[in-house]
Structures are given as structure tokens and as C-alpha cells.
Amino acid sequence: MVMDKISAMKKLFEPRSIAIIGASKNPSKVGYKILNNIIQVGYSGKIYPINPNADQILGRKVYSSLEDITGEVDMASIVLPAKFVFEALKACAKKNIKVVTIISSGFSEVGNLEEERKINSFAAEHGIRILGPNIFGHYSAKVSLNATFGPTNIPKGNVAIITQSGALGVAMIGKTAVQNIGLSSIISVGNKSDIDEADLVEYLVEQDDTKSILMYIEGIQKGERLVKVLKEATKKKPIVVIKSGRSKRGAIAAASHTGSLAGADEIFDAIMRQCGVLRAENIQQALDWCKYLSTAPIPAGENTVIITNGGGVGVLTTDACEKYNIRLFEDTQYLNDLFSDVTHGFGSTKNPIDLTGEATSAEYEHALDVALKDDKIYSVLALFCETAMIDAESLTSMIRTVYEKYKKNKKPIIFSIFGGEMTERVITDLSKENIPVFRDVYDAVSCLGVSYIQFRHAQVVDGEDRIPKVSINKISTIVDKALSDGREFLLADEGQELLHIAGLSGPKSGIARNIKQAVEIAEDIGYPVVMKVVSRDILHKSDVGGVLLDLDNKEEVLDAYQTIIHNCKAFKSNAVIDGIEVVEQVKLGTEVIIGGRRDKAFGPIIMFGLGGIYVEVMKDVSFRALPVNYRETRLMVEEIKSFPLLLGVRGEPRKDIEKIINTIYRIGYILQNCPRITDIEVNPLMVYEQGNGVKAVDIRVMLSENEGI
Amino acid sequence: MVMDKISAMKKLFEPRSIAIIGASKNPSKVGYKILNNIIQVGYSGKIYPINPNADQILGRKVYSSLEDITGEVDMASIVLPAKFVFEALKACAKKNIKVVTIISSGFSEVGNLEEERKINSFAAEHGIRILGPNIFGHYSAKVSLNATFGPTNIPKGNVAIITQSGALGVAMIGKTAVQNIGLSSIISVGNKSDIDEADLVEYLVEQDDTKSILMYIEGIQKGERLVKVLKEATKKKPIVVIKSGRSKRGAIAAASHTGSLAGADEIFDAIMRQCGVLRAENIQQALDWCKYLSTAPIPAGENTVIITNGGGVGVLTTDACEKYNIRLFEDTQYLNDLFSDVTHGFGSTKNPIDLTGEATSAEYEHALDVALKDDKIYSVLALFCETAMIDAESLTSMIRTVYEKYKKNKKPIIFSIFGGEMTERVITDLSKENIPVFRDVYDAVSCLGVSYIQFRHAQVVDGEDRIPKVSINKISTIVDKALSDGREFLLADEGQELLHIAGLSGPKSGIARNIKQAVEIAEDIGYPVVMKVVSRDILHKSDVGGVLLDLDNKEEVLDAYQTIIHNCKAFKSNAVIDGIEVVEQVKLGTEVIIGGRRDKAFGPIIMFGLGGIYVEVMKDVSFRALPVNYRETRLMVEEIKSFPLLLGVRGEPRKDIEKIINTIYRIGYILQNCPRITDIEVNPLMVYEQGNGVKAVDIRVMLSENEGI
To answer: What is the ipTM of this complex?
Structure first.
């Protein structure tokens, strides 16, 4: 009996009443601080402090147990030592409370998994949603509920923060207050035993007060659902993520070959991009982005114009634009016609538009008017170096006027001011009004950059989703057979069959059970051929001499047969040899690798890269979480650095890129829909000239009885 | 009669007297502002305002001309309109003034090159050094001289700023004041008609007041000298550079193939690294670094330890350490022995050392004591998330105490504090005292990162400089001949001779003047051979069918001879064909490219990369300015991403890396010492297994009558 999620979430964010189980008289205790915060901040609902040993705390009536409360209780916050939490939860169930936050620590984070699981199962059985344990609480501006033991001063606003780190979260409350960043909510998710980022984001994107969401993430458990939620959520609101553990130390151990190709952070990074989530490097950047995005429009096109009063800062900004992938308007003639009236003698109408150090406030405003009214210009970066020509008051009022005048026309305008005292005053005043004014051009440009990521992401997301003609049932039959044989991998012929079902072409082949058959098959295929042992006891066939290439005639096939049997028996005398596969030796082409596997964090993911050293040495690969649509699959191929090799360099012809995309798409579709397949690797996929297709030279498929991983 | 540089520079930074030619009564004029700044800031020397139409300005006696001054004048500052500057300079020469700053604009920056050149030649003839024109002036704390028209409030300190941008420079004065960054000097270099960064750095590294130098550079003219100066200067003081124009728009047009391999910014970047100059991305970062480096010691070893009261911020910092290449101390057992007494129950003695949110100020201090006293730990990052356990006062005093106690022991310690109001107070107070306290861990870690760049650079700089046995005279003879033939390139046989002189091995070859000779040479070399046309009229031989490969016997050589002649005549009927070169077809190996050329900005530079797509598609190349020592040449080979291919991957043997280094070193030596060679490209250099050497398959040498470029 799981409750409707949104309604449980509504009780978390807009409870009409809250019980604090473990409210305390002792000001040094968390049970006191939370109650105190709730009261001080002016929560609009009913407050029920629970403590069997107190009558009054902070002037409020204290209840000795939940049973004593006559009214309904929408949520409870438990601040008892770990060992008393389960009992308290049982009482919550009795009182029919559907959302409980467990502030207490002492659970899985210190190895006490059992207690956490017990609590969790009980809660699930009784339809109770749990936030925590091991959290500092949560704040919801809507009902002025500060059920945290952090600071009381939280300015209301439109940024929602979800944090996995307690200390950082509490400190972020202070930071946002200092920087005039208003919050709609801040939620500490702690051990995420039940409620996680996915649940919260799903609710927050529908909540009017929240205009942008910041997530601080350390680790991901239910990544597959998170990806699904994020893909939808970013269509509605900007989401910024900081993920710590970028470094190797934090990378998860990846079991299969595919996983070892790149650290887990590259996968996280790729998937967040795929979801349209904006990844910040550090907290300050994340806060800047969230503040900016909570008010800023998404641009309606490229063609950014820079307006400046200093050449140097203009060039620096041009550099920053390249870094953050902002495309500057480059129609010199058009710009000259537009701006020649507003620039001084030594100024420039080339982008950056340089008004020179002589520019007055009025001239600045005029130039901005021209830019912001123009139909071909979709965003403006306005730079200012402190000069004697403009004082703080006129600059502040000019910026305010321009910002207010144009803020409704969906054209981003960002200001960057560089200088001393005067600059500080202007920035301090304007940022209180949520006008985007920055101290450093790189900060300003990075904000516009994320707006453009949003803009461009919106062009890709709704790619058509062709369902390939692949019989998942037939593949399941192969998988059934292998698993019932006690194998966790497919044999070569089964792999070939899977390729066939998938509509993908592999080399011609047959299994020879004796030396005579080997020759027959080889003659049938045509020379040269490759021969490979088929044995459940030998997984790394090449390493033991179980694979021989370049067999050009009957004699060589005869020799090869005997050599392979000899080598395999030498490796493992009792190895069961099911036969020798004789395979067409495919002609050379450009080798690419397609690998899919179930990631511990994200579920099914797919990887693409050029074969050999491109993947292994240059780490030139792309990743996506499944499912991917066709358009996104194309991006996956196009974004690798070695893509020009597929387009054809140095006189080489263009390769059959469409067929690569088609293969990735189908392999992804199979992995997505066959939950008992844990890994599929096509390595190499031989790619020929455009029109000549591709050939899957080898396919390795790993299985597991347990669906997923 | 060029004056001794240092002494001229001393007059710029410590003049005993200054004349302001063009001093004005009008407060809106630059000629007023500069005089006013000089007086207000309290310049300790004599001030001579010059203006034929005024008696007094700002209460000072005004001279109608330099001639009226009886005393000696150490320097003059000219603030007249461009057209009067030359006359004023002549007067300076008469008065025997040796340093003149030309504030005035209207010269090369607006296309008026002629006037600037005229001034420059006159100054050079008379031993006068010029700063400018087109500058806002300069400030020197030593004599309290603010000869700028920027702000008057410049706190004295130890950072020197050299800026090519006026507007940015003036704004930087304000910025440094706001951020408590004291300056020893700030110099606007403007058009750099004479004095440039090299001159200033050369002086500033010897000046006691200056502890770190910041350069804002837009373009480089005399790069070769700058490189030479910077290489020496960074051994004495940290130098930070911001170079704008990173983006493609700003990249200089590169004429030769080598130059087109990577944008000019990659070259700048590589050369600055080679010089030990620290490149900041933006102004804030540059200022942070300069402030930090002006007081911080260079660490004596790796093994950084992070001490934190929050796990999340600890992980973020670990990430930042990877980004900025800081190596964390990883001896878990050692760390556990060291820190087990100072961490709480739930804390961690693994690096980051986590004191948990419960840590008090005293416990923090204790942990820092332990770290800073330990012999194996060479630097410490101390992190703090705002908690209720520590208030601003105790935190401030703890940090101050620890910093003061250990600042003399040459072990960097950097603090990063994250939070709200309290954090702001702590940071504001401590940064006034030049204690390195940051708001964001990435900023803190980047500072430690540049310290480690310095530390590591010091290990490389003084590599031995073996002079290779290469006769520059013999090479000059070849160059002479080619140039006197009217050619700006070497013919194939000349290229081979150059390789021979350089002690490098190319394929065996000979020039056939007729078809019979071709066969003789081929038989002599042994098959297979390659045949190539030798013609001054055909530069791109392959493109016109002038090269044929894989010639396995006499018949094929005979055919090839005729085919090549036919193809070349078809391409250009009157092409002069000097012969056909018959060349050993070298056996395949790993192809690398070595390219040297004279860069417009930096003079002779050298490039290395793996052949083919690694250079062209993956842009995987390394650069250095010449000369490079042997150790630095090794780094050049090791730093490319595809280096593992030379080490041997996938069962391949290690390649002859020593021989590659030797070849780069020799090619560099030749380019460096033969000024009429503009480009040398060895492409490909075939590299074999370790011990089996390398072979220069093709060499292209371009020449110019004019030395340098």
C-alpha cells in the first residue's frame, strides 16, 4: 500500500501540522534546535513537540506521545537516538502519519545497515515515506517551515537545494543568505534510505515557488529512475548538479571491460549532459548558476553580442565565450550598420562592440537599447571597466533601467563589472534585486553558457523514437538456454544468432564438430577464414591459442584445427570443447567498439568509441544512459574526438556512419529490454565506406539470472 | 649609445625627479590628473610640471620648458597630443633625460605607425628608453610615485603588475585595493614601442619590494627575448600571466604546415609552462595567485594533507587536488598513527583527515600542529564548514596563531572556509593580514597547485645541455648554395646531406639523372625502393604523381621512371626536372613528426607528435621554444597523450624513445643555430623497437635570405 508520491511529498513541503519526536529543553540538543527553528521562523501550521519528560518547551505545550494528539498530524520529525527510532516510527504508523524525517544518525553511514533496512521495510509496508536518516532536516518556504538544526536566517526565494552532505548543506544556508540567494526549500537527504533526489525533483518541478534546483550529490543508488525523472524535469526547470568524487579515488570499481574504459565520473558527466542537467564544478558556480537561472529567460537563438568600454576585457570575454561555447554574432556588416551611430571614433562595431573608455552612461544605455531591440541578436553581455566617465549611481540606475525594460522580452542580458570600491557598491546593490551582475567575466559568461546548454538541449530531447524490429522474445529464448546450461555468457554461435535477430550482420560462420566439417564449412564460406575454439571452459580464447587467423586454404584449416585442440588441452586438459567455429575473415575497415552494460549507479548504459588505441590509450569514448533516441545516438557518434576519421580524413572516404548509429541503437535496445543481459560488447564492429555497411566481427554477451545487477 | 638597461629602469622606478610635460590646470585633463596623483600620493622626489601657459598648478611652480629647470631630471612623462610628442622628446634629449613615459595615444594603435617609429628611432639614437605610448602611466611604491591617471588609493605591497590593457589596468588598481592586495608597482606598457615585459621583468625580479609579478598580455612582439628573460626570472620570483586572445579569432595566422597543427594559444601555453610562468585563466585567479605567492613558501616536497570538519567538502577538495595536480599523502598506516588521537569517533584518519562537525577550535589547532610538525607532510589544506561548534573569534584567532607559528617553516598552509556571515567576517579580517584564507576550495587548491608547479619546475630547469656534434658551418654551406640558386627550400639530396651532417639517419638514396642510373642505384640499395621526382618547380610531389612506392624489381623501376616523368610534365610541361631520387623504402615503424619553425611571436619553436591522425585529428602535439635542454625535450615526448604508444601497448614492444629525443634535440639545435632556416619538418620519422633506432623518411627544409623572419 504505497501512498501516492506527490501527495506524500506535499505533506513534506506543505504540512498542516508537524510532530517533533524527541523535542528537547536542552538548547545544546538537536531536539531543541529544530523546535526552536520551527517556532522562530514562524511555521504556519500546528506544532506538536513530543517528549514524555517535559510539559513545556519554548512556551509550547509538549505531548508525552503521539497518541495524546487529538488532531491529524501530517508529518513527523524524529530526533531520537538511533536505537529509539524504530519504536517512534511504529507510533507514527499508528497515528497514520505518512511522511517522517529521521534526523538521527547512527545508521548505514556507520555500518548499521540492518537497523536502517528494518525501518525502511516497516515504512514501506505501512505506506510511510522516509527522509533520511542522518540529515539536518528540511526547509520549505511555502509554509515557512524550517525543520532543520541549521541557521534560522533563510531568505525566501526561488532556488531549491537538495544536498547529500549535511555540513556542506548547513554552510550553504549561510552562504546563500550572504549572497542574497533566496531559497524555496533546502532538503538534506542523508542516507537516502527512501526519499531521494528523484522523488524530490519530481515534486519540485511542479511546485510554483521553485524556479531552479541545485543538487549536491556524492553517490547515486537508484540512477535509472533518477535519469528518467531528470530527463523530464529539465524540460520544465533548470537543474544544476555538483557531484563530488570526480577523482579516481571515488570512481566505482567497474567489473566489465566496457566499464574500465573510463572512470565513472565520465559516465556521470555524460549522463547528466544527456539529461540536460547542468554540472557545476564547485559550489560557488552552482549557486551563481541557480540564482541566474531562477530569473533568466532561455535565449531564443544564438548570435550573442558583447558590449564593452574596454578592449582588453572584450577580448577576455571573447575567450570566455569560446570556453563556454557561446556563439558570437559575426555579421560584421550588419553589426556595423547597427552600431556605427553609437560607438566613438576609436571604438569598434565588430563584436565585441567597443564603446571605448570615453563612453557615458547614456551612450551605454543607447547601445544596449539597440542590441536588445534587434531581431537578430538573441543575448547580450554588457561589460564595464571602472572609469572616471561613469559614477556608481548612474551606472546602477542605467543597468536597472535596461534590465527592467527588457526583462520580459526573453533575451538574456548579463552584466560584468570590473573595478574597485565603486564596482563593489554597484554589484552589492544590484544583486540584491536579482539583476545578473558579476565581478568576473568568466562567471558572467558561464551563466550565459548554461542558458545556451538549455537552449540547445531543448532542440535534441524530443528526437523520434523508432522501435527497431528486434524480437526480444527470440533473444530471451537464447538467454534462457544459456542460463539453463549454467552459463553466464553466450557462446559464439549464440552471439551470432543474437546479431541475426537484431538485424545486424556478422561474418559468415559455422561450428565444426570434427576436422572434416571444418574444411567443409571453410570451403563453403570461402577463404581466408578464422578459426576459434567454442568452449564454456575457455573465455579468453586468444590468450590460450584458441584463435587462428589468415587461414588461406584447406591445408591450413587442417593444421589449425589440430593446433587449436592441442593448445586448449594444454591450457586445461579437461576443457570441454564444443567445437571449432570457422568464421569468414572479414575484410579490414575502420574498427569501432560498441559496449553496453548495467552500471551499478545508472542501470543500462551504452558506450561508443573507435577501436584499439582510441579507446584504450586516448580514452576517446562517449556514453549514454539507455534509452537513447536516434538523434541522441547520432550525437554520441559525433562527439568523440576521433569522429573526423569516420567522416574521412587524408583522402579516405566517408565511413558508413548511419550504419554505426543503427547498430548502437539496436544494441542499446536489446540491453534495455533484456534485463538478464548484463553486458554486450561488439568489438570490433568493422565499418566500411558509406553505403557498404558494417560488420560485427565479434560479440560478447554476459548474462545474469538476476534481472538488472 | 644605448644606456645600461638596469640603470634606465631604476630611473623609471626610483626617479629622484620627474617632469610632467603637458601638466594642465583643467581637472578634466590627463595632464592635471597625473600631476594631481603624483602630488597627492606624496612622491618623495622633485616634481617639475611643464606648461608654457601656466605659472602654478595645484600650488606648484610650473616651468615653461625643460630648459628652465636648473636641476637634473631623471624622467619625464609626456601628456601632450600625439603631434607634439616628438618635439617634447627632442627637448628631453637636450635635457639629457634617459627615461620618458609617453601617456599620449594616437600612434600605432590607430594606425599611426610612422610617428611611433620616428619617435622610437630618435629615442634609440639618443639612448632614451620609452614606456608607451598609449598608456595610463606607472606607479612605483618605492618612491610613492603614482604617475598614472588612475585611482590614487593604491595600497603598498609586494605584487607588481604589468598590463597591456589600459582600461583593465586602471580597473585592476581599484580591484586590488578592494581585495587588500598591496602593489609594489603597476606599469602600463601600451604599444610597447620600446620598453616591454622583458625589460620590466628583468628589473622587477631584482627589486626587493616585488615578491610576485602579474602580466596581462594581449600580444607578443619580441618573444624570443621574453622567453629568455622569463626562464631566468622564474628561478627567482613567481610570475603569473593572463593572456587574452585564447580563442581562434585571436590565433595568429601560421604559414607553415607545422604552425597550422595547433592554434597559437597552445604554443603560448606550452612556452609559458616551459618558462615556469603560471598561466591564470582570468583576472581574479591571477590576483589570488599573486597575492598568495607573494608571501607563501614553495613546498619542499609532495604529500599534501587535507584537514576538514566536513566529509563533503573534503571530497570536493580531493577532486580539486586532482584537477590542480596536487598529490595527496596516501600512507594510510602512517596517517592513522599520526592522527588517531586527534579525530573523533566518526572521524577519519584517511586523507582527508575528517575531524567531524563536532571539532572544536582547540582540536583543529591540535590537528594542524600534528600535520605541520610532521617531517613527511609538506603542505596542508585546512577546510572548515561553518558549524555551531566554533565562533568567528575563536576560528580567526586559531588560524592566525597556526599561521604565524608555522609561516617560517617553509610549509604551505592554506585555509578554505565555507559558510555565511561568520565566514565572511573571518575571511575579511584574515585576508587583511595576508593570511591565505579562501571562500571556495577550488580557489584555495589552485593556489597550492601553482606552488607545486613552481616546485616541480625547479626540478627540471637546470637539465644538462649537451652540445650535439653538428657542424653548423657545413649546414650553412648547403643553405648558401640553395639560396644562391634562388631557392627557398632544400632539394631532397640536400635534405639528406643535412641529416647526415646532423648525425641522423635517413634512408639510403641516390639521384638518377637517367633511367639506367635509376636501375643501378636501386640495385645498389636493394628492393623495395621508392622513387621521387627532384624538381624546384614541384613542391608537393605526391599530389602530382611524382612519387611512386613499393618498387620491387628492375622492371618496376623502369616503368616508374617513365611514369614519373610523364606525370610531372603533365602537371607542368616546362618543369625543370633535376633527376629522380631513388630511395630505400624504409620498413614500417611508428611514425612521429618533428617540426621546427620560426614563430612570429616566439622565434624558433619546436613541435613533436605522433604521425598522421594523432597530429591532424587528435591535435596531440607538444611545443617548446628553443633552446630546450635534454631533460625538457624528454618531457616534450612524454607529455603527449599518445605517449603510451611509444612505451608499447597491447603487447607491442617499447619504441626507441631515446633516439626520438636525440632527433628532436638535434633538429632544434640546427634551427636555433641556422637563422636562415625558417622551417624544418621531419615527417615521418620512423621509430623502431628500443635499440633499433629511428629513420627520417622525409625532411623538408624551408629557407629565407633574411635571418629570423
So the answer is: 0.86
